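Q: what sequence does this backbone want?
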């Protein structure tokens, strides 16, 4: 009898895993990277639910946001709305189809912004080229702000006081008890160390920042040499881009291979939405044209309907 019960429990466990696994099937869509995507996840081919409670709850929250009318179900129209909005944004010319370049427009725009931002910092003359002298200038200025006497070395008396020094006045003036001198000293030390960590990594008291200008410039010049790929003494826009253009080109080819199913060189709206439509069909287990609590495992259904205790689910 006991053996029979154990076998039955094992079978129930296996069925539960299969049910959750069925929900997890599906192709890539258009979402973000793993952990950020919802049910259209382009970079998470399995899509759908994860086995853990935390991930399941996270996915359900995302899905629940698609229920715009609050009727407790997600229709195909609601499910596809984010992707349709994405398509409209990419289709800047209103042609009803996307070129290979438009599929990676966001990545290219992010790269262009990064290059412009670096040039803004180091290339004040807008020559679109950074010499070694320009590259050193911000480091020299940053160091000079702390080198009060201009001798090329940051001495102890040119550094902010340490936390214990901050606490000395508190030990005299602070009240005894809960907010006594020891507590105030610890708070002052935490404030001091937190400021250094936020502003300068390990801080000038630590090992990360050199107190000698010569050492600082050596580190800066090593960075310059890494960026100056052709070793001509100047960093141009192409060198600032590094290997990113090749990565974007690969991503462009990959997306066209996946999305351009008829291989006509463009991605139509139907092709762009096809993966999400299949994903919806996989989640709609009973095939009634909408995703409801009936399509979820028991625990997920309780959370969807708001009957589960949030602390218990966590």
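A:
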């Amino acid at each position: 009898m006991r053996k029979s019960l154990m076998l039955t429990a094992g079978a129930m466990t296996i069925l539960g895993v299969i049910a959750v696994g069925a929900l997890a099937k599906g192709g890539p869509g258009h979402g973000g990277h793993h952990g950020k995507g919802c049910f259209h996840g382009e970079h998470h081919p399995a899509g759908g639910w994860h086995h853990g409670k935390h991930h399941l709850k996270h996915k359900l929250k995302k899905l629940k946001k698609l229920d715009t009318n609050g009727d407790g179900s997600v229709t195909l129209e609601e499910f596809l709305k984010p992707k349709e909005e994405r398509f409209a944004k990419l289709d800047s010319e209103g042609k009803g189809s996307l070129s290979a370049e438009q599929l990676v427009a966001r990545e290219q725009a992010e790269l262009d912004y990064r290059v412009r931002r670096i040039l803004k910092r180091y290339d004040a003359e807008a020559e679109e080229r950074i010499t070694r002298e320009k590259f050193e200038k911000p480091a020299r200025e940053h160091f000079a702000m702390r080198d009060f006497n201009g001798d090329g070395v940051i001495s102890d008396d040119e550094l902010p006081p340490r936390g214990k020094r901050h606490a000395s006045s508190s030990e005299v003036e602070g009240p005894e008890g809960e907010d006594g001198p020891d507590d105030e000293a610890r708070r002052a030390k935490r404030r001091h160390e937190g400021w250094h960590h936020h502003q300068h990594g390990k801080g000038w008291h630590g090992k990360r920042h050199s107190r000698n200008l010569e050492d600082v410039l050596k580190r800066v010049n090593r960075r310059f040499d890494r960026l100056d790929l052709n070793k001509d003494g100047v960093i141009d826009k192409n060198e600032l881009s590094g290997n990113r253009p090749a990565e974007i080109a690969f991503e462009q080819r990959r997306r066209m291979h996946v999305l351009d199913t008829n291989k006509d060189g463009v991605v139509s709206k139907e092709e762009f939405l096809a993966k999400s439509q299949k994903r919806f069909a996989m989640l709609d287990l009973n095939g009634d044209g909408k995703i409801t609590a009936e399509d979820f495992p028991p625990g997920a259904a309780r959370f969807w309907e708001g009957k589960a205790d949030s602390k218990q689910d966590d």
